[in-house]
Amino acid sequence: MENVSQEKLDPKRWLSLIAVSLGVFMALIDTTVVNVALPSIQTNLNASYSDLQWVISAYTIVFSVLLLIWAKLGDLYGRKLMFIVGLIIFTIGSGLDAVSTSIGMLHIFRAVQAIGGSALMSLSFALIGTTFNGKERGIALGILSSIIGLSTASGPLVGGWLVDAFSWQSIFTINLPIGIITIIMASLFISNQQTHHATGSVDYIGMLLSTGTIFSLVFGLVQKEMNASWGWDKMQVAGYLIMAVILFILFIWRQRTAKNPMMDLSMFKSSSFTGAVLVAFFLGAGLYGFFAYLSTFMQNYVGYSAWDTGLRQATISGFSLVLGPIAGMLTNRLRHGYMLATSALFIGVGLFTLSALTTTTATFADFWPAFIIIGIGNGSINPPMTTAAMSSVAPRQMGMASGMISTFMQVGVSFGVVFQGLHLADGYQAGLAKHLPEVTGASATTIATLHKALVDAGPFSGHMIVMSKQLVKAPFAHELQIAVRKAFDQGFISIIRLDAMLLIIGGIVAAIFIKTGGQGDSK
């Protein structure tokens, strides 16, 4: 593998790390910060439940689709330039989000914001991987990885504080000053070595095929998520997934035959790189997709406010700040596959512990041991994953490698959210069928009516029915509330265990495939 000589390292490299970290933090936190603002957006913009889902999906779909495109544009026209362009688009999109006066406007401007956010995430690892060298690279990637772990988990905390203290618009307006500062820092401190670009023509066909593949895959999953009652064979779901497979086959064919392909498939000859992107998928599916459900559980069923929920989840995210840089330093000494396996095992054990502690009376006082175990794993898993990927390819391939890690993780989140949602709904409905008949003091007709209303409302909104003014005065209100909590817990525990298994599988993959780090320098 090629290395940047120590003499050529930019003296402003640590300031460039700050600029890149700020950009990544803004891009990723906006995938979760909006969750706690949805009730306020619904009231202010008179939005339906489907409208609110698209506030999230408009961002995640565009974000996922463009990750590889930005990686290639960075290779072609310079990563520094493309990163700054992404910052400008993201900042403008954030401002437009804040001035939206209708839900349709917000959907469009969230997509604009995601165009820029995708660039920031896609280019970040490559910028750092080619700016630093040797031991410093591991430390720098560890710091950047800790920011990624922190941003993903701290969205509810930041969003809860902003919404409670100001308004839902503030979750977007706060990006304006931060975005301007980051643009200035990126212009001044990111090395001009990052302005170089590759030679050759642009593989427009490859770009279109990759975009179509990821769009079809993610949109098909989103369709299933938003319409849980639809079967997988429904054309609005299956059609997109089949199209994704067809376009993916065409994309691979194009990359094998094109003179200047969009992606260098030789990267996947490295078992360590292949292992790293697979771990990114399992991490996205098994942990980062879970945070949305954890926030819903803590707010809607345990009873915490948005701020209190975020504050308690900081028990998980806070470890990233401490363990990220430490794990980054250890990547120079320990085999990356074993580090990843250990971190994934911690997360898996923490999730299984959380499932055992989940009861109808459980609060944070019961959950904190599980949160700490998950936090240790989350805080230490990103540095060896990104370092394994970056150290498995040549510097000229780091841009695409960075994009692949980000893409696999984001697609993993989409998979995780959909399959977790299905498990939650199935467990919730089975729990209602089991526990509603146990409610005494209500007629069979009343129970049947409540059962239909609770199923229609779904696991996210079921608590709103049993806490309504009409029902809280009923003599059976307390028993009804416990029955609904038990039903939600049944589904929630099932997705926790599913996520735990995904992380353990990811750890096994890492131990087998990833051979970089420590004494092993095999790719």
Automatic annotation (TrEMBL):
The chain crosses the membrane at residues 14-34, 54-71, 83-108, 114-132, 139-162, 168-190, 202-223, 235-253, 273-294, 314-331, 338-357, 363-381, 401-422, 495-514. It holds the Pfam family MFS_1. CDD domains: MFS_MMR_MDR_like. Keywords: Cell membrane, Membrane, Transmembrane, Transmembrane helix, Transport. SUPFAM superfamilies: MFS general substrate transporter. One of its GO terms (molecular function) is transmembrane transporter activity. The keyword Transmembrane applies. The keyword Transmembrane helix applies. GO terms for cellular component: plasma membrane. It is found in: Cell membrane. Residues 16-518 form the Major facilitator superfamily (MFS) profile domain. It is a multi-pass membrane protein. PANTHER family: BLR6921 PROTEIN (PTHR42718:SF46), MAJOR FACILITATOR SUPERFAMILY MULTIDRUG TRANSPORTER MFSC (PTHR42718). This is Transmembrane efflux protein. It comes from Leuconostoc inhae. The lineage of its organism: Bacteria, Bacillati, Bacillota, Bacilli, Lactobacillales.
